[in-house]
Design a protein that fits this description.
This protein has 181 residues and is mostly helical. It has four helices and two strands, in the order αββααα. It is extended.
Length: 181
């Protein structure tokens, strides 16, 4: 189906990129769980609050709409509060004060439960991807027996194959807090 307003789609895509905090010149964002990269399929308001907005509003990740719904269900099952349990100020009366406000320990427990559930889910997905990748390697071995020689000549990213991202400190001389370590 063709749209009668082609510029509207471009404007919508620009708004989604802006909501996700993505620079127009950078590669498009993708779902951290499944890799979906079509902008219209991403949860674009402000990303998924991994620990729940009431527990840590700044810890966000880009998820597609389907993975966002699955992540929220995981959070609900783990008992993570997704909303402030207190009634809004405009609804509060002297007779209905609601539950006590969550303490920092309550919020930390919710954050850990939520992030733990997210990491378990992500770990399962990574296991699926690793299985797929091992199948692709086996298919390459069968179809192109010399492919490994070509790949071996390409250096890996930092932190892979012995390369370090950060300088190593001798165990006898770790940096101090004053030195910025």
């Amino acid at each position: 189906m063709t749209t009668t307003r082609p510029l509207a789609g471009a404007a919508r895509a620009a708004r989604r990129r802006a909501a996700l905090g993505v620079d127009p010149d950078s590669p498009p964002p993708a779902c951290a769980r499944c890799g979906e990269a079509r902008l219209f399929a991403l949860h674009a308001r402000e990303g998924h609050h991994v620990a729940g907005r009431v527990n840590d509003p700044s810890l966000t990740v880009v998820l597609c709409l389907n993975c966002h719904a699955a992540a929220h269900e995981t959070m609900r099952v783990a008992g993570v509060p997704l909303r402030d349990p207190r009634p809004p100020r405009w609804a509060a009366s002297t007779h209905d004060v609601g539950p006590p406000p969550p303490t920092m320990l309550d919020r930390l427990a919710a954050l850990l439960a939520s992030v733990g559930g997210f990491l378990v889910d992500l770990g399962e997905r990574f296991g699926d991807w690793a299985g797929w990748l091992l199948g692709a390697v086996a298919a390459l071995d069968a179809a192109v027996p010399t492919w490994r020689e070509t790949v071996a000549a390409v250096p890996g990213p930092p932190g892979v194959g012995g390369q370090r991202r950060y300088p190593a400190y001798p165990a006898s001389d770790p940096p101090t807090v004053e030195e910025g370590g």
